[in-house]
Specification:
Structural class: alpha/beta
Shape: globular
Radius of gyration: 18 Å
Distance between the termini: 50 Å
Number of helices: 6
Number of domains: 2
CATH topology of the largest domain: Rossmann fold
Bound molecules: S-adenosylmethionine
CATH architecture of the largest domain: 3-Layer(aba) Sandwich
CATH class of the largest domain: Alpha Beta
Number of strands: 11
Strand content: 25-35%
CATH superfamily of the largest domain: Vaccinia Virus protein VP39
Helix content: 10-25%
Order of helices and strands: HHEHEHEEHEEEEEHEE
Largest sheet: 7 strands, mixed
Length: 267
């Protein structure tokens, strides 16, 4: 096996490992955009394979997908055409073209902002990229879930699957770096194709609901909804019901996933 990240270096494998046959993530994002009256021009930040961007495009939106991974972008252009795909770092970007009506950031892509500076970079870039009144819709792991809950941390987890004639197995260990507020993942892959095991390290910011509110307000966003579900990756999963469209009060936000909709205030 080669590559720095088996999944993001192999987008087809990524889609096989994390199937979303009902396009729940894109449908949920679209429901949020519709509930809050967003215009058609949408940026999918950390768009990955492009499957959500392409679904939003088919739903009639004018979509740009942005990602840092060249293999992901190549896959998106070939397999999920329609949107414009651009290479950009979500921690600081300036994209060409008119302002966007909305930015969507799905499946914890926002948590690649490991530091406060990264998060400031993302939010100030989104603010620049959005028109006045534009929306940010994001869905991610919830840092608050890990306060007092160790169920994901207690023991390594393992699994396996076959893809294109090769059997892959993996052992995953999650740890919390408390001072850095990072969830660190160490994953060791083995395969039956004779190649050596591959060890990969990833990390996600453990971002807390109040912290996210504070950062959004500091960057000129008003929170319209902040809650732990239902969403496209919760249990029970979102099934198309109305998404919260209220004033963003202190809703329940201690589950495994955090969902936020925020609007640029003023100009
Ligand atoms: C978990 S995947 C989510 C992909 C997609 N949003 C989805 O829901 O299927 C995270 C994506 O973020 C991208 N990514 C990681 N760091 C990034 C960065 N600094 N700037 C832009 N994209 C980044 C990865 O390449 C990957 O495609």
């Amino acid at each position: 096996m080669t590559g720095e990240n088996l999944l993001t270096d192999n987008p087809a494998l990524y889609e096989a490992r994390f199937p979303d046959p009902g396009h729940l993530a894109a449908r949920w994002a679209d429901a949020c955009l519709t509930a809050h009256g967003a215009g058609p021009r949408v940026l999918d930040l950390g768009c990955g394979t492009g499957r959500d961007a392409a679904w939003l495009h088919r739903a009639g939106r004018d979509v740009t997908g942005a990602d840092l991974s060249a293999p992901m972008l190549a896959h998106a252009r070939t397999h999920h055409p329609g949107p414009v795909y651009l290479r950009a770092d979500l921690r600081g970007f300036d994209l060409p073209g008119p302002p966007f009506d909305a930015v969507v950031c799905l499946d914890s892509a926002l948590l690649y902002c490991h530091t406060n500076e990264d998060l400031d970079g993302l939010l100030s870039s989104c603010r620049r990229a959005l028109r006045p009144g534009g929306l940010l819709v994001a869905e991610m792991r919830n840092g608050a879930f890990f306060l007092g809950s160790t169920e994901l941390l207690d023991a390594p987890s393992s699994g396996g699957f076959a893809w294109e004639g090769t059997a892959y197995t993996y052992v995953t260990t999650l740890t919390v770096d408390r001072a850095a507020q990072l969830l660190r993942r160490r994953r060791v892959w083995t395969s039956d194709d004779g190649s050596a095991p591959v060890e990969q390290e990833s990390a996600w910011r453990l971002l807390f609901p109040q912290e996210l509110r504070y950062a959004l307000a500091a960057h000129g966003f008003e929170v319209l909804a902040l809650h732990d579900g239902p969403g496209p990756r919760t249990s029970p999963v979102w099934e198309g019901e109305a998404v919260p469209a209220g004033a963003g009060g202190p809703g329940r936000a201690d589950g495994d996933r955090l969902h936020v909709v925020a609007r640029v205030v003023g100009d």
